[in-house]
């Protein structure tokens, strides 16, 4: 799909994306690159990074991959420093690395809970922590008039509750809190904008195949307001909006990109039935016999 943004909205910017070699992260890498940014991606698997980097380069995007695990502070530090060494500066950090699996709370070990907290919540903070000195206004390679920006990929699970995802709900709630708190502190002190995106079910991703086998996603479609899965492109366009100057006054928000899914619930009555029922109930409550025309009263 063609982008509605001009091809130079991120011209001259350098973006580092954790989890940027696959899934939603890779689509954001690609779209950022196609809109003028140089791309560094961080991930645990070398072959995934290599193939992502060659995919980006083949589209004319300056790209580099660094192997690292966001759970390790030394990896975070090394990758942020290597990015700045390679491209000369850092403007945008996207925290897209995440871990997930379905498990009932009673079958989840504390270590399983901690593992996802470590990747999603602590990992996000660690990357932000290591990137701060490069993102702040006046940081290496940037002027004293503007800071960089951060995007944290979250979810909507914790807005209500989610079956078999207590660990991810807790982790993403912490990510959203981190987004707001950093937006307050670093927005004020360093002119860094910190925002998030909460994707709904996005087709063709590891998340969907891991968390929503086909039978479940077909069922979910019946109650989804826009009646379809999202595309990775939808998330990448939201990311472009938030990371580019289009979003220059947006700070501390987590943009839900889910077609309204998190608001949805099964329809308990058909629309026609509700018309009749509600009129009948009203008349009954006013003591009017149901079914007697107005002219006869
Ligand atoms: N059900 C229950 N517990 C599970 C589990 C599952 N499907 N998968 C892992 N765990 C538990 C393990 O049993 C272990 O706990 P224990 O020591 O008490 O037994 C803990 O989680 C850590 O598992 P381990 O396999 O050692 O972690 P890892 O660091 O190798 O992998 C994961 C991290 C588990 C998050 C792995 O799924 C991953 O790497 N995911 C990244 C990709 C991804 O999830 N993408 C989807 C994004 S939505």
Task: Provide structural commentary.
The chain folds into 2 domains: 253 residues, Rossmann fold (3-Layer(aba) Sandwich), CATH 3.40.50; 30 residues. The chain is α/β, with parallel strands linked by helices. The longest helix is centred in the middle third of the chain and has 26 residues. Helices cover 44% and strands 12% of the residues. The chain is elongated, with a radius of gyration of 23 Å. The model has no long low-confidence stretch (mean pLDDT 92). The chain binds coenzyme A (COA). Coenzyme A binds next to helix 4 and helix 6. It catalyses: a (2E,4E)-dienoyl-CoA + NADPH + H(+) = a 4,5-saturated-(3E)-enoyl-CoA + NADP(+); a (2E,4Z)-dienoyl-CoA + NADPH + H(+) = a 4,5-saturated-(3E)-enoyl-CoA + NADP(+). One of its GO terms (molecular function) is 2,4-dienoyl-CoA reductase (NADPH) activity.
A few lines on this structure:
The protein is α/β, with parallel strands linked by helices and 297 residues long. Helices cover 44% and strands 12% of the residues.
């Amino acid at each position: 799909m063609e982008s509605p943004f001009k091809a130079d909205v991120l011209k001259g910017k350098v973006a580092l994306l954790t989890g940027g070699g696959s899934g939603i992260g890779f689509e954001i890498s690609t779209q950022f690159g196609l809109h003028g940014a140089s791309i560094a991606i961080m991930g645990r698997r070398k072959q995934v990074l290599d193939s992502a980097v060659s995919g980006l380069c083949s589209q004319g995007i300056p790209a580099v991959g660094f192997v690292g695990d966001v759970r390790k502070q030394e990896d975070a530090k090394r990758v942020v420093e290597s990015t700045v060494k390679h491209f000369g500066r850092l403007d945008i950090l996207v925290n897209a690395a995440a871990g997930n699996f379905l498990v009932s709370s009673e079958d989840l070990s504390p270590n399983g809970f901690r593992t996802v907290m470590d990747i999603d919540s602590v990992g996000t903070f660690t990357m932000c922590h290591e990137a701060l000195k490069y993102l702040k206004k006046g940081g290496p390679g940037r002027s004293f008039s503007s800071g960089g920006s951060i995007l944290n990929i979250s979810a909507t699970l914790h807005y209500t509750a989610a079956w078999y995802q207590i660990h991810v709900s807790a982790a993403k709630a912490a990510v959203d809190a981190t987004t707001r708190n950093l937006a307050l502190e670093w927005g004020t002190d360093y002119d860094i904008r910190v925002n998030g995106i909460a994707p709904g079910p996005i087709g063709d991703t590891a998340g969907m195949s891991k968390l929503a086998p086909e039978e479940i996603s077909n069922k979910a479609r019946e109650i989804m307001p826009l009646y379809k899965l999202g595309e990775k492109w939808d998330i990448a366009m939201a990311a472009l909006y938030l990371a580019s100057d289009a979003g220059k006054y947006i700070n501390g928000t987590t943009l839900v990109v889910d077609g309204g899914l998190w608001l949805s619930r099964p329809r308990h009555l058909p629309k026609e039935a509700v018309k009749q029922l509600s009129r009948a109930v009203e008349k009954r409550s006013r003591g009017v016999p149901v079914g007697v025309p107005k002219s006869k009263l």
